[in-house]
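Subject: sequence -> structure tokens, single chain

Hey, anyone have a minute? Need the predicted structure for the following. Not urgent.
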Amino acid sequence: MTPELGIIEGFFGRPYSWEDRADMVRALAPAGYGFYLYAPKADGYLRRRWREPYPDTELEALAAFAEACRNAGVRFGVGLSPYELFLGFDGPAKGALAAKLAQLDGLGLADLGVFFDDMKGDLPELAERQIEILHWIAERTRASRIIACPSYYTDDPVLDRVFGQRPANYLEDLGAGLDPAIRLMWTGEEVCSREFSPGHLERVTGQMRRKPFLWDNYPVNDGPRMSRHLHLRAFTGRPAAIGAQVAAHGINTASQAVLSRIPALTLAESYARGEGYQYLAAFRRAAEAVLGADLADGVERTLLLLEDAGLDGMTADQKTRLTARFAAFDHPAAREILAWLDGAFAIGAEELQTQ
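Reply:
Had a minute. Here:
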């Protein structure tokens, strides 16, 4: 069973262009990708500056992209991160939130994401405060679906180290008190999970009292360490058997919009082929579909450098040879590789703190 598949543009650093987004929607919709959640960390109007209204020019660009999604038969949504709203959900905060919801509703949202990640969360009443906010939003938005990201969206203890110790029974309390119609996101046993097992998803379903809406952090490659690598290989560790255990499966794509289509296509194939899926063959088919035969061959031959060694693991001579190899192709994916080799996609620690 193939679950609902979709794109989550939820990474740090340099965001996509509007053309990148529209092209991705048109390219992946035929493969079964049915939703796009616009939530780049670089869009401050959805994050730390969420109380400020969108300027007209940016709102017009969002509206045009929303129309492109609808024309492709893809659900359009945004991910709003109302920074630290649960610390003071008072009159002024409610007024600012109502104004932002009205702006977003004007885009014709199908999906509204409400994200509580990337914020300090060690509060004993965290679940109760977030339930109040989500129910308040549900009464006012015209979006047909609300998808919430909990503050603690994985078992990974790295969140407790960075954002404070999660309250006892946080996920259970959130699931028990939240309207069953509101979806809850989950990234798995880790922030960037290597696999999703049926046993793990069954346990999380019990805690949430609903099937998890997967936020799959592959092929995303943001952050100071991951931005030094290109994530191109086919999906593994997502057996087709999990399809019946999730509400949907969204992938957080890489900073390279065209190259991201390669692993995206393999996930759709993994679900379609089930136990017959072979990840290397899937990669080759997807790479050729996205890149053409010659460029696909060049990428496959250099995967060990592009994905495994990365910028810090290759020599100056290897980098020079890669640059010469991909400069020979007039293709947007080759230009993404060249820009990556030149450091254009590098992400520093400062961006993780300010976006």
